[in-house]
Write a structure and sequence with these properties.
The protein has 322 residues and is of the alpha/beta class. It is 40% helix and 24% strand. The chain has one domain. Helix 8 runs parallel beside helix 9.
Length: 322
């Protein structure tokens, strides 16, 4: 396929300086909120907790944070300014045809992955990219059963539109605490075993917006993230990795070190990750790469519920494509 550029995006996705989420994704989210009786509670200015440690937090996130999370992933994958075209090319290639196994880590309500699939579907519907059959086997992993339930329900609403444009999705959801490496190891091995039974050797790992947890929580899940990175970095597997986060402020200076450990694992550089109180240190035989090339970007997206442009920030902290 010829190189896809930002100027090729349809105006249903990008109009000068503003990102638009695909209409079917918005309709699925709004329909879900209405069915739950939560539509009147939509207020993105409410600053609640990140994620879904409790049922109430999962509810608040699906109501008020879903669209912002979807917009961040949509902006990265559409890349209207051609800032990181290698990410867009990877997504278009991996989800272009054939079969692929997608591991959605700390999946929550699936906003990131649902946004990625919706972008692909919108580009297909607008005849911007070929509409070739692709089967996507998704395993979503998160400790919140409530959030995963919402993921499944919104996917169900999107499924007819996805299928009509050649995207056939099989969604498996696994309640699992990434802080318990043994439990995640079982989920991950099952994920790989299923791919072997299907004779599929292409993989994509997606992580979206988990930096909201504190340093202790991030340290606790780092071994599971490295376990996934190690397994998907095998020469026997054609794997890609995409980790997208909001802008990381000075108060979380420790976060990039966690990202670096995953990048080192993806690059197969031997290292040790050491927690020291509220911060971390890294010891590696080779020079440790920095995040100098991973610059945060600011953008605007249209909130259709409030009919106003919203300012947002995003950064790609880990990326691999082989």
């Amino acid at each position: 396929m010829a190189s896809f550029l930002g100027k090729n995006l349809p105006d249903s996705i990008w109009k000068p300086d503003v990102l638009y989420l695909p209409e079917p994704l918005l309709e699925a989210h709004k329909s879900f909120l209405e069915e739950q009786g939560w539509w009147a509670e939509y207020d993105p200015n409410v600053h609640g907790n990140i994620g879904g440690a409790t049922a109430d937090e999962a509810k608040e996130h699906i109501i008020n944070r879903f669209l912002n999370s979807a917009a961040r992933m949509g902006f990265v994958c559409a890349d209207p300014m051609d800032t990181q075209p290698e990410v867009r090319e990877m997504v278009l290639d991996q989800l272009g045809e054939g079969q692929i196994f997608l591991l959605d880590l700390a999946a929550g309500n699936g906003a990131g992955t649902l946004s990625m699939l919706s972008l692909i579907c919108e580009l297909r519907a607008k005849k911007c990219v070929p509409k070739l059959p692709v089967n996507v086997h998704i395993t979503g992993v998160d400790y919140s059963s409530a959030a995963l339930k919402y993921y499944s329900e919104i996917m169900g609403k999107l499924d007819p539109w996805l299928k009509s444009n050649g995207l056939h999705v099989n969604l498996s959801l696994c309640p699992c605490d990434l802080a318990v490496v043994g439990d995640f190891g079982e989920v991950f091995e099952s994920f790989l075993d299923e791919s072997k039974r299907a004779s599929v050797n292409r993989f994509l790992c997606v992580i979206s917006a988990i930096s909201g947890i504190n340093s202790e929580g991030m340290g606790a899940i780092s071994d599971s993230l490295k376990h996934a990175a190690t397994g998907l970095s095998s020469k026997k597997r054609n794997s890609s990795w995409l980790w997208v986060e909001p802008h990381i402020g000075k108060k979380k200076a420790w976060v990039p070190k966690v990202f670096v450990t995953v990048n080192l694992t993806l690059k197969k550089i031997a290292h040790r990750f050491i927690q020291k109180g509220d911060t971390f240190d890294i010891k590696a035989d080779d020079e440790v790469p920095t995040l100098e090339d991973a610059q945060p970007r600011s953008f605007q997206w249209l909130d259709p519920y409030k009919n106003k442009a919203i300012n947002s920030n995003v950064i790609v902290v880990a990326f691999k494509n082989e």
